[in-house]
Design a protein that fits this description.
2 domains, six-stranded parallel beta sheet, Rossmann fold, Pantoate--beta-alanine Ligase, Chain: A,domain 2, binds adenosine monophosphate, globular, alpha/beta
Length: 297
């Protein structure tokens, strides 16, 4: 006899590209007293996305995954066209993970030809990723607002992998009084430390080896702080030195910031985050690690 994996019994996945179908399914679920969880993604799902889906399954009753490669968050010379699109496999992965509803809209469903409404989180949008990808966070904030308005979840799930993004979304939801709890879940890594990313599939075998320098540099910064080093410039320099030990790495930023505000630091503070954006060959990767100051003995 075949039995469903634990917890997936009685769940049937629906996939739709229509807003009305999502609204009806969500309001039916809410009418049945269920709490709604939403996991916004751009598809090409991997274990990082699945960890968010698992958290949503554990913490809510009706899980909606959105799959939408959002054009407005890509710059003119970025990889919007090449971005991996694997909708059928993604829907199957969602089915196996016990998702209730997949929303995979066309671009024209999310954006009208004449749209003039955008959401911008001033300040946080302009630094780090925002400095190197102008307009990126306006695209992110706008699409997340639209997706939250369509799915109206109780909880929305984001990865710590995109650290600045989840801070920005938290702030946006708070300031716009959106009735949603923003949940951030830890970065899922390969056993050797590489953070999972849909863009990892662009890497050749040798580039993948070089890409390990990114997580190693963050780990190094964490280790230096835990060994008692407090000089931020010195830690950043050592991180940069390790990162650039291969000529195929070109660095956009490698920095240690206040983990709550992303402000620059002159000296170590209690809650810090190391953040790196670097190109390995042609592939741009980001990663980060929280760094806590050890308690004084
Ligand atoms: P994306 O499809 O790249 O837009 O990512 C969708 C969500 O998955 C975002 O909230 C990401 O932060 C999250 N995510 C991406 N990679 C990982 C990872 N390695 N671990 C945990 N979450 C991730």
């Amino acid at each position: 006899m075949l039995t469903a994996p634990s917890g997936t019994k009685n769940r049937e996945l629906r996939a739709t590209d229509r807003i009305e179908v999502v609204r009806t399914a969500v309001s039916d679920a809410r009418g049945r007293g269920l709490r709604i969880g939403c996991v916004p993604t751009m598809g090409a799902l991997h274990a990082g996305h699945l960890s968010l889906i698992t958290a949503a399954r554990e913490e809510t009753d009706f899980v909606v995954v959105t799959i939408f490669v959002n054009p407005t968050q890509f710059g003119p010379n970025e990889d919007f066209r090449q971005y991996p699109r694997t909708l059928n496999e993604d829907i199957e992965a969602c089915r196996q993970a016990g998702v209730d509803l997949v929303f995979h809209p066309e671009t024209g469903t999310i954006y009208g030809q004449d749209d003039r409404t955008f959401v911008e989180v001033a300040g946080l949008s302009d630094i780090l990723e925002g400095e190197f990808r102008p307009g990126h966070f306006r695209g992110v904030a706008t699409v997340v607002t639209k997706l939250l308005n369509i799915t109206s979840p109780d909880c929305a799930y984001f990865g710590a992998k995109d650290y600045q993004q989840q801070l920005l979304i938290r702030r946006m939801c708070r300031e716009l009084h959106l009735p949603v709890e923003v949940c951030t879940k830890p970065t899922v890594r390969e056993p050797d430390g590489l953070a999972l990313s849909s863009r990892n599939r662009y890497l050749s075998d040798s580039e993948r080896q070089v890409a390990l320098l990114i997580s190693q540099s963050l780990q190094l910064a964490k280790q230096l702080v835990s060994d008692g080093e407090h000089d931020i410039d010195s830690i950043s320099n050592k991180m940069l030195h390790h990162l650039t030990s291969s000529p195929s790495v070109s660095v956009d930023y490698a920095t240690i910031r206040n983990a709550e505000t992303l402000e620059e630091l002159s000296s170590a503070c209690h809650s810090m985050v190391g953040l790196i954006a670097a190109r390995v060959g042609k592939t741009r990767l980001i990663d980060n690690m929280l760094i806590d100051l050890p308690e004084p003995r």
